[in-house]
Automatic annotation (TrEMBL):
This is tRNA N6-adenosine threonylcarbamoyltransferase. One of its GO terms (biological process) is tRNA threonylcarbamoyladenosine modification. NCBIfam families: gcp_kae1, T6A_TsaD_YgjD. Its cofactor is Fe(2+). Its EC number is 2.3.1.234. GO terms for molecular function: iron ion binding; tRNA N(6)-L-threonylcarbamoyladenine synthase activity. Belongs to the KAE1 / TsaD family. GO terms for cellular component: cytoplasm. It comes from Histidinibacterium aquaticum. The lineage of its organism: Bacteria, Pseudomonadati, Pseudomonadota, Alphaproteobacteria, Rhodobacterales.
Amino acid sequence: SSAPLVLGIESSCDDTAAAVLRDREILSNVVMGQAELHAAYGGVVPEIAARAHAEKVDLCVEQALEGAGVSLGEIDAIAVTAGPGLIGGVLAGVMCGKGLSAATGIPLVGVNHLAGHALTPRLTEGLEFPYLMLLVSGGHCQFLRVDGPESFTRMGGTIDDAPGEAFDKTARLLGLPQPGGPHVERAAERGNAGRFPLPRPLLDRPGCDMSFSGLKTALLRARDGMVAAKGGLTETDRADLCAAFQSAVTAILAEKSRRALEAAPDVTGFAVAGGVAANGAVRAALTGIAEARNVAFVAPPLALCTDNAAMIAYAGAERLKAGKTDDLDLPARPRWPL
Ligand code: KG4
Ligand code: ZN
C-alpha cells in the first residue's frame, strides 16, 4: 500500500498510548492506563501522571511497533499529542516523539488532542464533512462543527465542569468507586429519576452552552438532607439520586444537541466521543435527537471514543497529507484551543 505508515503517541491525561496506522487501518493500538496509581487520591494527580508517562511511553511505543509487526525504520511519520492537557504528560510524549524523530530523521507531526477526538468518526466510520461532534468526557464538553481536517468551529460547551467530572463527583458523594460514570449508570438503572427533582442549569437560555456544577451542589444537598433525617443512605436512595443525576445530564445534553443541530442544518452526521458517550441513557437520547433531524448518529467503538493514540496517528496522517510537519522545536502546550 502507498498510504503512509504513521506512529501515534498520546500522553495528555492519564493514559499512555501508542498506535500504528496505515490510512484507516489500525495495525496496533496500545493503551496503558494509570487508574491504580491515582485511585487513592480520588482524581488524577498531575505529578504522578507525568512520571508514569515518562516511565511507560518508550515501552508503549515498542509494543505498538511490535503489535503492528513493523520496525521504527518503516514508519513514515511520528504523530504526537502536543496539547492541550496536563503539561508534564504532554511533555513526556513530545520528548519521546522528538527523540525518535531526531535519531531517525522520520518527520514529526504535532497533533491537537481535541482534533484527534473530533476526527475519530472519520477514522472509524469514514464520516464525510461537514459533521457535528459532541465531545463529552471527564475533561471536555463541547460541540464542534467539523468542516475539514483542520477546520473546527466551537458551537458552545460547558461553562464549568465536564459531565464526566460530574459523574465522578456524584459517585464520590454516594460512596461509589472511581471512575464513577459506569457505577452511577448501573445504580441509576434501578432508580426512580422523579424522586429528587434536580435543576437543569442553562436549559432555558439560548445557545449551546451548558453547566453541570449546580447539579453537583443540588445532589450534595439532597444527600445531606437524607443523611441528616435518617442517618445514612439506603440502596434505594442511592439509586434514585443516581437516576435523577443521570436524567438531568441526559436532558441537558439532548436539548443542547438539538439546538446545535438546528444551528448547523447542512451537516449530515452527528458524532459523539469521550467517555460519557459510553452511557446508554445519553446515547439513546442523542440517537433520538439525530433521528428527529434525519442525520446519521455515529458513536465510534468505546476504545476509540476514550483517549487513545490511534486517533492521534489518524489526525497526524491528515496533517501529513496536507504537507504539514513540525520541527524539533515543537512546543508542548497545556492550553490549545482548536
Ligand atoms: O474520555 P475519557 O476516557 O477521558 C477523558 O476524560 O479524557 O472519559 C472519562 C470519563 C470519566 O469521567 C468517566 O466517569 C466517564 O467518562 N464515563 C462515563 C461512563 N463511562 C465512563 N460517564 C457516564 N456513563 C458511563 N457509562
Ligand atoms: Zn481526551
